[in-house]
Amino acid sequence: MPARVAMQQISKIYPNGVVANHKVDFAVEKGEIHALVGENGAGKSTLMKLLYGLEQPTHGAIFLEGRRVEIANPQRAIHLGIGMVHQNFMLAPSFTIAENVVLGNEPRKGRLVDHKRAIAITAALSAKFGLQVDPTARIEATPVGMRQRAEILKTLFRGADLLILDEPTAVLTPQETDELFWAVRNLVDQGKTVIFITHKLGEVKEIADRVTVMRHGEVAGRVATREVTEADLARMMVGRAVLLSSYARPAVRGKVVAAVHNLGCIDETGRPVLRNVTFAVHAGEILGVAGVEGNGQSELVEVMAGLRAVATGEIRINGKAVQGASVREMRANGVAHIPEDRLANGVALDASIAENLVVDRYHRPPFTRYGVLWPRSVRQHATALMQQFDIRGAGPGASLRSLSGGNQQKVVAAREFSAAPVLLIAAQPTRGVDIGATEFVHGQLLAKRNAGAAVLLVSADLSEVLRLADRIVVMVKGEIAGILENGPQLTEETLGVYMLGRNRPTP
Ligand SMILES: Nc1ncnc2c1ncn2[C@@H]1O[C@H](COP(=O)(O)OP(=O)(O)OP(=O)(O)O)[C@@H](O)[C@H]1O
Ligand SMILES: [Mg+2]
């Protein structure tokens, strides 16, 4: 039987000259779960954009079930049974889930959209494929896991039998990932084929039948997952052995840098999202924050970064009360922030890499001297950071938009690490970055800690929190359920139990 997808000798050269894919052969059999892995910038998203008609190959041919096809645009891809869920979601935030699922192909009653049927269709698809959603909920009010299920339902509604999922688990908690995997297996049982991009090699072993490894735009290998270990895959990806070991941790805990006292905060609808939050971050300490998504962690970060108003309580940085300060004022007080949603808060996509690396400091020396901006120092600064953080792109003048997802994240991390903060707030700092870069970012977080900075680390990845944090704050329903000393006795399982609020940890 011919392969569901066969891409042959595919090359893609972007207009700026970047060779994103070079003579790639990629094949997926019907009914399999096929993982696609590789470092940031290896060309994974590009290859899938070619398959979904978002970009056109420079050379090469695409065959579907043995038949040569031209995929001029996503409409054509959908017609050919291909659906894609992107690295960055593309749903309309003020629409309901049902409206999003049927968008562009709405059931009608006369000239009006038949909302009842839209809801019924969504509910039926949801039941059939085990992708649980609330059809009437507005996208902006639903947690990220449900948004993702809505995206998948949307592709299924349009008749997709080949689903491309670009880093679907990067934004999910471990529980949500389990649910997604369950649904993916269910899809395959019902005859669908799934291509799955991830940086988490454990997931490849868990869910995929086969895996294609990309390196620098080429295919480094294609193997059955049961025949390889995670370490094998890492070596194929990076070209050397990579090992995320644990760290010896004796922290020298210094004075209190950030003190949060009785902090309270309400959301847009007046619902309390933070209540009586009290903790301190010391110099030379990484304080981890763990919690099931939506339990106040994001709001806590926003408040501390100056992005969200405080209802009650106070925040002190080095003794100075700063609650209610703006982002700029927080920065002036020595707070740096790697935001969880880099597209919303971190970067200007159409500005250059160099500009993005100085947005917080271009008005100061060495970038501005005698009131004049010195483009040369901006460029030198960018070149140095790009080298240090291994940011791969066309050069300091390239737009941020032209970088791969993981490399965009590295730009934000590089800027914040280099800001010499007294308090570094790192929210999901390795979301979407590859294992080599994760190792590097972890090293940087520890270096900041060892140099005496206070670090607040919020991550949905419990292994990351357990690996780096000296103490861990567990948040449940906007409150602190406990503060735990990290150590060998603490595991992902025990932490998970605390996070569900079934057990109160003893401080
Ligand atoms: N629109 C674009 N214009 C120019 N260059 C681009 C564009 N999109 C991607 N690139 C470049 O193509 C290369 C491959 O990028 P791609 O997004 O395919 O990587 P990726 O493997 O998906 O990485 P990540 O894991 O970081 O998402 C990178 O060097 C990137 O800078
Ligand atoms: Mg990508």
Give an overview of the whole structure.
- By secondary structure, this protein is α/β, with parallel strands linked by helices.
- The protein has two domains: 5-238, P-loop containing nucleotide triphosphate hydrolases (Rossmann fold, 3-Layer(aba) Sandwich), CATH 3.40.50; 246-334 and 421-507, P-loop containing nucleotide triphosphate hydrolases (Rossmann fold), CATH 3.40.50.
- It is built from 17 helices and 24 strands.
Can you list the ligands bound to this structure?
adenosine-5'-triphosphate, magnesium ion
Instruction: Identify low-pLDDT runs.
Output: none
CATH fold name of the largest domain: Rossmann fold
Q: How much is the radius of gyration in Å?
A: 23 Å
Concise synopsis of the structure shown:
The protein is α/β, with parallel strands linked by helices and 507 residues long. The protein is built from 17 helices and 24 strands. The protein is 33% helix and 26% strand.
